[in-house]
Amino acid sequence: MSHSIQAVRGFGTSLLSPLPRSDEPELLDAPEPDPAELAENFRDIQRVNHLLGGTSIILRHLPPLLAAIPARQPVTLLDLATGVADIPLAIVRWAERRDLAVTIVASDSSIPVLNLAQERIAAHPALSLAHYDARAVPLPDKRFDIVLCSLALHHFAPDDACQVLREMDRLARAGFILNDLRRGRPGYAAAWIASRLTTRNRLTRHDAPLSVRRAYTPAELASLLRRAGVSNVTITTHPWFRMAALKVSGDHHA
Q1: Which of 9, 100, 202, 209 is least enclosed by beta carbons within 10 angstroms?
Q2: Rounded to an integer, what distance in angstroms lies between the CA atom of residue 166 and that of residue 170?
Q3: Pick from 193, 137, 147, 151: which is nearest to 169 by CA?
Q4: Domains and CATH numbers, the chain
Q5: Residues 6 or more apart from 153 whose CB is under 8 A from it?
Q6: For 124-179, how does the pLDDT look when each residue is reduced to its tens digit (9 = 90+)?
């Protein structure tokens, strides 16, 4: 399937009517969020990634990309819209257990968010931070072996989401992993209930259910990839209303 976008049937087929996509902005994307609220919000996001699959989906899809990279050290990764870099930190620990040398650039467009991330990565020399807009990264083509983007595509309207996907494809030699929510009524209900039961944070309570309403469906993600001109991608669905897009390109020319 040389120019294909393949959807692999996975976890979570809904018989309910479609949930319309929302363009309402999330509080997390406000220009000057309250630092204490922001830090607590990201603690909630980190807990969700750890317990509900955000981290494990990335780690599950890494081996096929690593297998496509010739034996050389270290493997270079870029994480777009990294938040507080909890997933890059998990990758560093995962790689250490496998005696695999990695260097990761964790990037975000928000300075307040990067300030929070800096406190977390200080003890990890394999990790560095960068202030990049995921829609337009000022770096040359094929700069990294692997490009990642987790729990962020839903923050972008369709045209901008296409640009993020183009950048991921452009910057990666071996391929990329996109991991995000998938929109649906069960996921919306679960996010609404969980955000009321597990946190008092204003940002989390507002943004968690809204994130599901802003998210794309697997079919919409496939359409975005086609619009972006990105081919040879496999889309999979996962528990807890997640989906992933994996591209293994095997292009190792710098």
Answers
A1: 9
A2: 6
A3: 147
A4: 5-11+19-248 (3.40.50.150)
A5: 161, 164, 165, 178, 180, 215, 216, 221
A6: 999 999 999 999 999 999 999 999 999 999 999 999 999 999 999 999 999 999 99
